[in-house]
Design a protein that fits this description.
four-stranded antiparallel beta sheet, D-amino Acid Aminotransferase, Chain A, domain 1, Dna Ligase, domain 1, disordered N terminus
Length: 314
Amino acid sequence: MVDDRAGRYAAAPVRLGKIGVLLGGRSAEREVSLKTGEAVYKALTARGYDACKIDAAGPVWKRLDEIRPDAVFIALHGRYGEDGTIQGLLELMDIPYTGSGVMASALAMDKIMTKAVFRSRGIPVADEYPAAGPVAKYPVIVKPSREGSTIGVTVVQEEAGLAPAVAEAYRYDDLVLVEEFVDGRLLTAAVIGSPPRALPLVEVRAAGGFYDYESKYTPGMTEYICPAELEPEITARLQEQAVAAHSAIGCADVSRVDFILEPGGRFVCLEVNTMPGLTETSLVPKAAAAAGIEFEDLVETIMRGASLKLKPKQ
């Protein structure tokens, strides 16, 4: 699969005019998005861009029509921002934007469909079971198929816990994924630019053992090691697979690819996040810093992707 926007316009990057930073929104990840959007807004204004914040919670098309930004930096997470819907609106309004297009955004948001694509490309994934059972081996992990930030996710140790976990996941989505719980090191790879390249890997060590919503967004609850302490060949292999996953989905500008590495060397790819967080505890900025890329440079690099999608004036 190829992102139909990634190479549509061959013009060199240009300095954009007014930039709308889309943040907030209506998903369960609204609070995280507000933090990401604020950080992006500050970085853009520090670099001299004419930026404004646009909360996508209400009739966002009206705000966009009033402001008519030359481009949009999408700082939304979850549904109605990361799932292709806002991307479709911006396409219809002829407003260039950062990140992946409609198809890649929708595909990556759906964990079940993402795994199907990964399998077709030979990217290793965890085994899965029907949401209604039976389960061959515990523990398993239960997830809403189209949510992020570990919202609605439960680790189930025995059969008695499966039904309540599935019910909890159904509170957030009508598609639920039940898959084997792979016990190992949580590693993540940021992929940026065009052509895409993987930044140094980050290992995530949550204090409670499970990287849940609280661990993700509470400073001090999780230890981050970057670059991850791995054998060079394993690092190279995971970076290669991260770029392969990014490209298989059709991502553009930036993504974050998550892996679990077992002690024996087996690894599985968990998911691709097409709009990773850009907060003080977020992983992509940590990986960029390890590569010598300051936060403002990272934001500007992602923003440059929108300039590449500007339609030539007639």
